[in-house]
């Protein structure tokens, strides 16, 4: 590959053999480099010139890789730093990421991984993929960040954090109620980062049946189980080079938590039925509406996995805590919904409509607001949406949700009597298909509303529709 003048690296390691190994590997890749054996030598070189990236061992005779990181932070230098930590030292890796390292590698260094991590630190992988995918990949860069409306103090903080974390590969944990915009934040982190042109794969951990998790995450080989007619890649392979967004991570069963932890530690996954592992290099963003620290205390979430995922935490507050954003968000959503529906110009909200919105607590947060506006737009037809068009209960009339008695479940008639199905999975798929299709038709193909009527989130609905190959008119903005 052609070298650009910016491909200049600084390698810091005190062991001559390792330094030679790194140098040889990098020279063969076409990089141009200098090396140092101590922190002070490294700082002297850094004072003289700028590098694209710095690759530093953690333990050095006169200090540590963290000292180099701290120096670069203080000097506000743009170099990306990859630290190399001792095997099994999760603390060091997490500490380095928190201190601003771009990424880390663990000893003994796997050279394939080394090349791939350095390629992302120098931006080569992103450049290559942008060239390859220029026309076909949707350019997510900045688009998601642009969609994130709201000028409240807390939203400014969220945006500042997105900007900061997007510069490294550090895992991010997003904490917030359902519908607050966690996925949008995850997309913004990806879109602002150096790998914006690479895939962003969103997975709702809670929507996948437990027995399919491993195959869905890591893929499988042909013949691994009945029905595995060909090799299939998992989410990790699909997100290779980019970002894997694990939503509702708190719903992951313990057994799968262990497998996920292993994949993070080893930076490799083994598809079901495969002998060899496949290296993966991606950024993990996870999200939860649960208090994961409390889940750890309760023994439902692995402490070590929590530690690995929670390197940087961003809290996305509920809408009721940032009511001053409501007007901006409502207007932004209305613009988008109207544009998607081909309604030009977009209608606006009357003063009374805005007042009604402000008085409503929005337990379903921004997603609920989006649905309310969808419905209002479909029903009103005018240029000004009034309070009545929103179809919201008065603030005074709002009652707390009453727990409904669970309705008795009656088995579908064919099962109460008559022959039992000879293929239960296929039979249940047929039942599910009929239920989903009926709910979709009843809600004019609005997947959010159809899902809600069945007690499913939009993601669960999407997952089920995709699994059963149910298409149909795009009925809402949840895609
Ligand atoms: N600040 C915002 N400005 C504009 N639109 C927003 C904002 N926050 C969220 N949205 C929109 O609200 C909807 C719900 O957001 P999103 O799916 O990101 O929430 P979530 O927290 O991931 O929800 P869940 O936990 O249920 O998966 C999306 O259509 C998103 O684009």
UniProtKB/TrEMBL annotation:
The modification 4-aspartylphosphate is found at residue 57. Keywords: ATP-binding, DNA-binding, Nucleotide-binding, Phosphoprotein, Transcription, Transcription regulation. GO terms for biological process: phosphorelay signal transduction system; regulation of DNA-templated transcription. Pfam families: AAA_lid_14 (PF25601), HTH_8 (PF02954), Response_reg (PF00072), Sigma54_activat (PF00158). The keyword Phosphoprotein applies. InterPro entries: AAA+_ATPase, AAA_lid_NorR, CheY-like_superfamily, Homeodomain-like_sf, HTH_Fis, P-loop_NTPase, Sig_transdc_resp-reg_receiver, Sigma_54_int. The keyword Ribonucleoprotein does not apply. Residues 8-122 form the Response regulatory domain. Residues 148-378 form the Sigma-54 factor interaction domain. One of its GO terms (molecular function) is sequence-specific DNA binding. It comes from the Bacteria. PANTHER family: RESPONSE REGULATOR PROTEIN PILR, TRANSCRIPTIONAL REGULATORY PROTEIN. This is Sigma-54-dependent Fis family transcriptional regulator. It comes from Inhella crocodyli.
């Amino acid at each position: 590959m052609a070298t650009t003048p910016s491909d200049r690296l600084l390698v810091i390691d005190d062991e001559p053999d390792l330094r030679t190994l790194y140098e040889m590997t990098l020279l063969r890749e076409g990089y141009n480099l200098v090396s140092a054996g101590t922190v002070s030598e490294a700082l002297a070189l850094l004072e003289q010139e700028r590098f694209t990236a710095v690759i530093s061992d953690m333990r050095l005779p006169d200090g540590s890789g963290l000292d180099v990181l701290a120096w670069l932070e203080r000097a506000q230098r743009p170099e990306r730093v990859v630290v190399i930590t001792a095997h099994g030292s999760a603390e060091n890796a997490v500490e380095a990421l928190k201190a601003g390292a771009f990424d880390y590698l663990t000893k003994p260094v796997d050279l394939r991984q080394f090349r791939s991590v350095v390629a992302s630190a120098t931006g080569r992988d992103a450049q290559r993929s942008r060239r390859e995918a220029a026309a076909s990949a949707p350019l997510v860069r900045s688009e998601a960040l642009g969609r994130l409306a709201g000028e409240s103090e807390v939203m400014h903080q969220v945006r500042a954090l997105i900007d900061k974390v997007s510069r490294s590969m550090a895992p991010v944990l997003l904490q917030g109620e359902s519908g607050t915009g966690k996925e949008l934040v995850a997309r913004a982190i990806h879109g602002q980062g150096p790998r914006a042109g690479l895939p962003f794969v969103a997975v709702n951990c809670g929507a996948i049946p437990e027995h399919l998790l491993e195959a869905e995450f890591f893929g499988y080989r042909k013949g691994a189980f009945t029905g595995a007619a060909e090799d299939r890649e998992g989410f990790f392979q699909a997100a290779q080079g980019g970002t894997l967004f694990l939503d509702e991570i708190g719903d992951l069963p313990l057994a799968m938590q262990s497998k996920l932890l292993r994949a993070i530690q080893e930076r490799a996954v083994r598809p079901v039925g495969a002998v060899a592992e496949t290296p993966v290099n991606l950024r993990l963003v996870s999200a939860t509406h649960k208090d994961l620290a409390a889940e750890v205390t309760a023994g439902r979430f692995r402490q070590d996995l929590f530690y690995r995922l929670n390197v940087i935490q961003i809290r996305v507050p509920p809408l009721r805590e940032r009511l001053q954003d409501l007007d901006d968000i409502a207007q932004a959503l209305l613009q988008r919904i109207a544009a998607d529906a081909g309604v030009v110009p977009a209608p606006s909200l009357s003063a009374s409509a805005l007042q009604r919105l402000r008085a409503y607590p929005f337990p379903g947060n921004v997603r609920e607001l989006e649905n309310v506006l969808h419905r209002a737009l479909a029903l009103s037809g005018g240029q000004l949406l009034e309070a009545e068009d929103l179809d919201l209960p008065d603030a005074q009339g709002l009652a707390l949700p009453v727990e409904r008695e669970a309705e008795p479940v009656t088995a579908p008639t064919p099962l109460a009597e008559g022959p039992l199905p000879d293929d239960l999975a296929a039979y249940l798929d047929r039942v599910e298909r009929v239920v989903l299709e009926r709910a979709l038709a009843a809600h004019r193909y609005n997947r959010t509303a159809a899902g809600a009527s069945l007690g499913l989130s939009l993601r669960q609905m999407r997952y089920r529709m995709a699994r059963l190959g149910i298409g149909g008119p795009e009925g809402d903005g949840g895609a």
